[in-house]
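Hey, I was hoping to borrow your eyes for a little while. I've been staring at a protein lately and its backbone has me curious. You're getting the sequence in one-letter code plus the fold written as tokens. Would you mind checking whether the tokens look sensible for this chain? Here's the protein in full, and shout if anything looks odd to you:
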Amino acid sequence: MFAAFLAALGRPVIGACRSAGNLGLFALEAISHILRPPFYGRQLMRHFIEVAYFSLPVVALTALFTGMVLALQSYTGFARFNAQSAVANVVILSVTRELGPVLAGLMVAGRIGASMAAELGTMRVTDQIDALTTLSTNPMKYLVAPRVLAATLAMPLLVLVADVLGAMGGFLIGTIKLGFVPASYLKTTWDVLETEDVVSGLVKAAVFGFIIALMGCYSGYRSKGGAQGVGLATTSAVVMASILILALDYVVTEAFFAQ
């Protein structure tokens, strides 16, 4: 019974290690194809537009309302300690350091990660990926590398827009509803904001973009079992990308702000 218990306990651990190893090898292969010719510029541009332009509305709305809610909640909490003047500080630092990159990453993971997994999964189960190999086209270089590079480059741009709109949302609520003087609010925001705050958020965005595309491509590329397999791959891509975004958010924050 004890041996059976250890076997039952070890199987998921071994499976997790095997999956982590396969993902690491997949990531290294994708990076190697990004750095080595030939390069598919048209594919890169198509996926860049898909990630950056078509994800802009959902990221913009998320950031705007997040800044508005953050200003309102901060004011409510700080009013208990007569510290309402700190609202602008909290809004701009929270948006640029954390909420902008993380929420944008989660939104893009739900949209782009699922799309990539579904597209590549469908190509896998319908043998289109094998057909590319037959035509002497490397599927990793043609399908995976442009998606990973496009998402890595597009996410910082999306997060930069999210930072601006999140700060704007806090400004609108602070001046229209909470009674802050616009010039004073803007001066406080500008004084407290440092280059490191913005840079850390953009670095997080690039990491999150890489993870989103990697998980979407990995899940779709290795899917099997027809329509049900594609559905499982799509779900796995979104869930794993979201978990890794939250985990790596701590790692990058520790690297930038740990004392």
